[in-house]
Design goal:
Length: 153
């Protein structure tokens, strides 16, 4: 590919070839595909949730349903969905103290970065997302949605 700049008067610069990317790219592990995730309990697909990927992601409502992934990288982002039926989830990384996050929002928000974590250097890590089967104090739903986990090299 080549690019050039054009100013407001229509003057164009010379074409410049783009540089090939040499750095490793992030790996996106889609929940619907499995891709190495291990699931316990009941996770059901929910469809027609545009604009999420292919329109389908996984949802759990029962306490103890979990998704786990072991990966090598320097960071991760867990992508979820927020909505008025969203409930609480516990996220555990390696041996760190787990944290509780909420999938609740008065508005429907697809592809939400529910949780992010970065480390100083790449390494092997383990993440576990667990549905608590509890509603957020602001809502009545117990849904925990899982779209994907993006692993940064």
């Amino acid at each position: 590919y080549s690019v050039r700049a054009v100013d407001g008067a229509g003057n164009a610069s010379a074409w410049t070839a783009t540089q090939a990317r040499t750095a490793p790219r992030r790996q996106v592990v889609r929940a619907m595909n499995g891709d190495g995730m291990r699931f316990t309990g009941t996770w059901r697909p929910e469809s027609d949730l545009d604009p999420v990927g292919d329109g389908t992601l996984l949802c759990a409502t029962a306490a103890g349903a979990s998704a786990a992934l072991t990966f090598t990288g320097q960071g991760l982002v867990i992508h979820s969905r927020l909505g008025d039926q969203g409930g609480l989830a516990r996220i555990a990384i390696d041996d760190e103290e787990p944290i509780v996050v909420s999938c609740y929002s008065a508005d429907e928000i697809p592809q939400w970065p529910l949780f992010e974590r970065q480390w100083e250097a790449p390494g092997e890590h383990h993440v576990r997302i667990e549905c608590l089967g509890q509603a957020d104090a602001r809502g009545a739903g117990r849904k925990v949605w899982l779209d994907a986990v993006a692993v940064h090299p």
